[in-house]
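In practice, a research group might receive sequence data for several interacting partners and want a quick structural hypothesis before committing to experiments. The following worked case mirrors that situation: the sequences arrive first, and a predicted assembly follows.
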Amino acid sequence: MATKYVYYFGKGKAEGKADMKSLLGGKGANLAEMTNIKLPVPPGFTITTEVCNAYYANKKKFPKELKKQLEDALKKVEKDMGCKFGDPLNPLLLSVRSGARASMPGMMDTVLNLGLNDTTVKGLIAKTGNERFVYDSYRRFVQMYGDVVMDLKPKDKHQIDPFEEIIEAKKKKRKIESDIDFSAQDLKELAEEFKLEIKKETGMNFPDDPMEQLWGSVGAVFRSWMNDRAIVYRKLNNIPVEWGTAVNVQSMVFGNLGDTSGTGVAFTRNPSNGENEFYGEYLMNAQGEDVVAGTRTPLPMSELKKAKPKIYKQLEQVRKNLEKHYHDMMDIEFTMQDEVLYMLQCRAGKRTGYASVRIAVDMVKEKLISEKEAVLRVDPEQLNQLLRPIFSLTEKQEAVRSGKLLATGLNAGPGAACGKVYFNSFDAVNAHARGETVILVRIETSPEDIRGMSASEGILTSRGGMTSHAALVARQMGKVCVAGCGQLDIDYLLKTIKVKGKPHIIKEGDFLSIDGSTGEVIVGKLQAKPSEILQVLVDKTLKPEKSKSYSYYSTFMKWVDKYRRLKIRTNADQPDQCENAIAFGAEGIGLCRTEHMFFGGDRINAVREMILAYSTEGRKKALAKILPYQRKDFTEIFRVMKGLPVTIRTLDPPLHEFLPHTENEITKLAELIGTNVDEIKYKLNALHEFNPMLGHRGCRLGISFPEITEMQSRAIFEAAAAVIKEGKKVYPEIMIPLIGNEKEFIEQETIIRRTAEEVMKEKKIRFKYKVGTMIEIPRAAIVADKIAKYAEFFSFGTNDLTQMTFGISRDDAASFMPDYREKELLNRDPFESIDTEGVGMLMEWAVRKGRETRPDIKLGICGEHGGEPDSITFCDQLGLEYVSCSPFRVPVARLAAARASLNKAKK
Amino acid sequence: MATKYVYYFGKGKAEGKADMKSLLGGKGANLAEMTNIKLPVPPGFTITTEVCNAYYANKKKFPKELKKQLEDALKKVEKDMGCKFGDPLNPLLLSVRSGARASMPGMMDTVLNLGLNDTTVKGLIAKTGNERFVYDSYRRFVQMYGDVVMDLKPKDKHQIDPFEEIIEAKKKKRKIESDIDFSAQDLKELAEEFKLEIKKETGMNFPDDPMEQLWGSVGAVFRSWMNDRAIVYRKLNNIPVEWGTAVNVQSMVFGNLGDTSGTGVAFTRNPSNGENEFYGEYLMNAQGEDVVAGTRTPLPMSELKKAKPKIYKQLEQVRKNLEKHYHDMMDIEFTMQDEVLYMLQCRAGKRTGYASVRIAVDMVKEKLISEKEAVLRVDPEQLNQLLRPIFSLTEKQEAVRSGKLLATGLNAGPGAACGKVYFNSFDAVNAHARGETVILVRIETSPEDIRGMSASEGILTSRGGMTSHAALVARQMGKVCVAGCGQLDIDYLLKTIKVKGKPHIIKEGDFLSIDGSTGEVIVGKLQAKPSEILQVLVDKTLKPEKSKSYSYYSTFMKWVDKYRRLKIRTNADQPDQCENAIAFGAEGIGLCRTEHMFFGGDRINAVREMILAYSTEGRKKALAKILPYQRKDFTEIFRVMKGLPVTIRTLDPPLHEFLPHTENEITKLAELIGTNVDEIKYKLNALHEFNPMLGHRGCRLGISFPEITEMQSRAIFEAAAAVIKEGKKVYPEIMIPLIGNEKEFIEQETIIRRTAEEVMKEKKIRFKYKVGTMIEIPRAAIVADKIAKYAEFFSFGTNDLTQMTFGISRDDAASFMPDYREKELLNRDPFESIDTEGVGMLMEWAVRKGRETRPDIKLGICGEHGGEPDSITFCDQLGLEYVSCSPFRVPVARLAAARASLNKAKK
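A structural hypothesis for the assembly, expressed as tokens:
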């Protein structure tokens, strides 16, 4: 049987359904699902994502089976709609839209009103009796088709759209201001002029044949899968290019047939704060694109309730049905054509992190979903938003009182951001590259702006609603956003913002503070402060019972912890960091770097003296000075950690990192420790390495200078003894870095265990401890079975493991990584998320081999990947005992771990 | 049953045999074998290597079963010898010697004359009637036991031996010059004084109890397995510490009973040139140690034939029997006691590379061994000696005529060496580290000197024969050696060499030229020139039929090629290198580095212009200038290679390597290419990398600058087309470096294949070529299955693969590798021989995965390991198609490959 490439939906029956997203895309699957649950969906069909892949695999040609399947489906649409595509008297009009597995709003192309030509136009006029509407549709169609299919684009970034140029010329000629004022004749002429321009610029005739229009549009939408915006968006959102997009061909309904028609988008709950209310916007006499594009500021749903109570009631029912059916907060698009409601789209609604948690918790209470489902509903990265900074209320009030409140817009992306103003993506990206904090200010954003949005801390627009491009993308990126702030008079040319009645002129580079939770835009710098949850957990300035958001958070996190198998530890080496991490739910320290303790205060001088020593005796003398500092550090950490395991890594970085490099500092140091400048320079020179990452560091230091390992273990064990004597529990795990074979391990382990015995004897106390190793050199993973004979635990150091497995120095990758991204040579940045194929294989091997010799070996990860959700999922699959990440990532890691467990259980 | 730890031999019957070397050590196995073939071996027993391992595993205690087994064996010895250990009237004396699996001459300890004490001494005097001999044996025994077992050593390196000090004092007191002049009474006193000194210095009494002497000696010999010399020797010779040593306890026979006694060492053929003659040395009235230590210069075997014709005839028979029995050239030790011959040791004789080849070829002709056995008889590294330089005959004759011949010694290690003179190991090692070529000059060498010997090009001694320590070790290390050059008056204190009747005073740092093939020592520098084989193969200045050594070589290499499976390629990028390689038997180029071609002449300027260009256009302009050069290079190489495969690697090193770094050069370059100095400096700065090995290099260059790959492939293919048009065959294989995933490969492959098509079209010609990749990044090995979908061949770049797998930068390893060696943390330098456990596992994986997707994938290696015998064996096991090495290593690789095949077949 031939592959089924086309799936029909219409009249309450569809061939697809909601769980066929990978084949039909999100939109297609949901159109089918809505059809199946008897929502009023205009009939149509979906061309599968497989066609997209086939199209690209086969030099942009369609599989030959597609033609007949498409024609058959088209016939069904004609039958269901009672009109015919291209029929001069009773023409069917179609829309062609993209629809990928994951939502990529605005990234790909759409063509509407297919089927119009000089003949069908007349039939449609006769049918609708609305000449102006028909010619408006016609000119829109020609314009869209000319742009999307025939590729007539602005010649450079300074030219405005060629079609808009013609429209502007026509307006001038007709002396009118707005599109609304065009007559039917004007619009008819515009369509003709567009066609002539297309012919002139592209050399091709605009196709009159509706079938040619259809194939052209389908091809163009597939091609838009590979446009620049889509590529960048996929990269930012980790969407694989292999997923492809589906194409939805659907019969047109019109929100722009006059005042009895309209169109809107809505969420079944508030996507910003999660409140259980019908939340959305609509425009009368408009097509859907008008709402999403943000060119006209739409009205809230509450207005619709008053204006069109019947339709509103119908929509309220749809809202309830959808939540009951999908068990989720949904994002819908609807059109009213002559007071008849059509559903054009429905999908899970994007929401802020806080809304996400609140909706999940509320839905459990409403018995719409289970606790497990709730956990799976919140994206771990979104949880991070709950920890984002807010402005101090008093400081903000003070600013408002002193007249610094510039304007108030929509609270489209929660959080507080303060930065320098830039007016386009290019400047924003550059400023970000210079290290500045950026607020991107745009009249409205378009998909072309996503690079700039990604580089900015906050986004501020003067046009567009809560569902505008700016708002949607900002929420998804976790950016602060104030949208539709209509008071702002933004001048791109002068690069200024003015507000009527306000004295300020904000210029490029000036500071603005925007509050995405309230919509306030404030002149100058405002200190951002911790979120409510941070105030409760970290600052302890807010009582838990006083905070609604904390209450949602803590309810949610209780469920998270209930379903998680992986333990979460933290990477911390200061007592206050450790305290924060515990507040965030950390269950131990996975990586305590001892070298951070080497800096600061007098100790760095002793460290330098140690490095400059030319004999073991000299080094021992200097180390004796460092010992009390290290012991104190560990003592404090052990106290804070209250018996939770603390994994301490022995000295890792190359010694030259501790030496001064400037002339001035060298002179000072020479004086201080009584040596001469040349000697320090000589040592610096001797310590210089061609590839320091692969040089004298890690356990290699402890092997060359066993006295360092000895001092460090003594500090650890003496601290342990001291804290135990205070009546507290202590559980140190000493971790040896950069091990490549078991002999290195034994060498260092021997020193550590000997020191432990000595300290226990001296202090007349016994304590438990473990000695283990990082697995961060490929060879260590390979011979893990041998190392596990001696090492009691492994902790994967995936930063270095990735560098060595890829042969890529992270510090030097900037020179070629942009080329790799541009050419899509890497699915994903391996330093961000574990490369499961390469690095992951070594990890898997190490786990298997390690367990072969030591079945109960303790396994964890302490590379930065330990806080990244996909990597956490992978670690869960590997069966590690814990992941370790920075304190602020702990909640994210807890959630990711719970989701990993639940997803595994589902399979 | 209890483990058998003791193996008896004596009276024509032994419990062991020759093939039990791993258990009994070489000496023990051969003593057993000689006993079995009825040679006159003094009875004794061997304590196995397992006891050595057990001893070290169990805190230097013996397994408890050993005691009874040893006592039983001792009883048998007593029975066979008809005397008793410790019997006051008829005492048995014993020797205790080490004997490892592989010969480690002089590295471990020996104790002779056990069983003597104040009581047995009297019995022995009565028995032998030779009071002086007995007391001499006694004082020797006390001296040896005191040194070896009771550890009375020189206090520091300036003190001479404490026993020698006593001897010297006694000589002074007795006003005599030589040991020979001591009376029996003197010797008796010496023994007493030695005992007093031992007591004074060690606090312990010298043991009178023979059994205590025996156990003490056995333990000391086992302990000597871990002495410094032994550790260094094992490292140099890749002998695993786990092998352990056996200990041989044997009844003493005496070569020092007077003029009817003597001792000697001999080879069944000439170990220097392989000639089939009885070759050796002996000393009358001496113990074996006196010959080996080189303290007295012995007489050649031809003298023995005259002096003791009966013994000589017996020995001639032994020689024949041994070669017939062992099918090899043997090294024997014998003692004559009162005109009775005893065989003390026999083992395969060490020989020079040339002797090795010649003996192997001769023995095939003599039908003693088969061709296959012949191939297995020659160590690949030894073959290298045949290619070692020799002095020009005319130049040497000229030097001799002009009075520069300082002296002539024994031709103990063939080859010609010229270098600066140093008088001790310490200075030699330092000079070597400074980059100097060193001739180590010693009166005689001892095991303490091996570090210095290893650092020297040539070794010159004034004492000792062809079997002296210097000669043996030099031959094994493949060093040039002139030994026993008695005319030399070497003064360690002044660091000078004088020769009676010669005007020269050679001081430290002066140049000497020594000819290890003739024994000549010449003042000043002599140009070394290619060996005969090189003269035939490379210089073509010698007709093959005129050279005996070439004739042996070529006969041997024909057999080598007959039994080898692996193909041997070469790493070469100059036409003359390629020609040499073909002469050495290379069957293709495994690695042609294109970057070497980037230097030299005008081309480097074009390369620099390309690097400094800021646009693709600028780069293309500069590349167009490089193209003709590269094309010419490839054209010449293809011509020379006559259709043999040529693997060309696209540009690999980081670009900054091509830029000038000195102020002066930068200024010149700026003028030349019309840019300014700052711009070059800016670029240099921009190209700086923290870890260049893991930076912008390899295919990453071609990905960032596809125009480079395009130019290089065009040059290759245009050259191919040109040479094909000359009527010759061409077979290019283009190799992409530093691939980490298949997408990178596809990207570069596409450019190469497109260029190939273009060139074929332009030149109206078709040619075959392959596109493949290096496997040098761990990740590439891991995902080899995916890469093999596109790559037609893999070539293992084991240099980088080792660096990344170990996380060790070869350039930076010097700072910690000495510590690793000292602490024995690496079995072997992984940059010298493939680390089969770690790197090898990745190679194995890559081979398996690569074949999964492409069963006929071509596999090779082009890292430096490709010329190292053990690595070649590993590559043969992996089933690679070829190894590639530098031209001069090709013969070695051919032999190693043949041996690998034969050894595999044996299993």
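Before designing any experiment, note the following. Chain A has a mean pLDDT of 91. Residues 531 and 656 of chain A are 40 Å apart (CA to CA).
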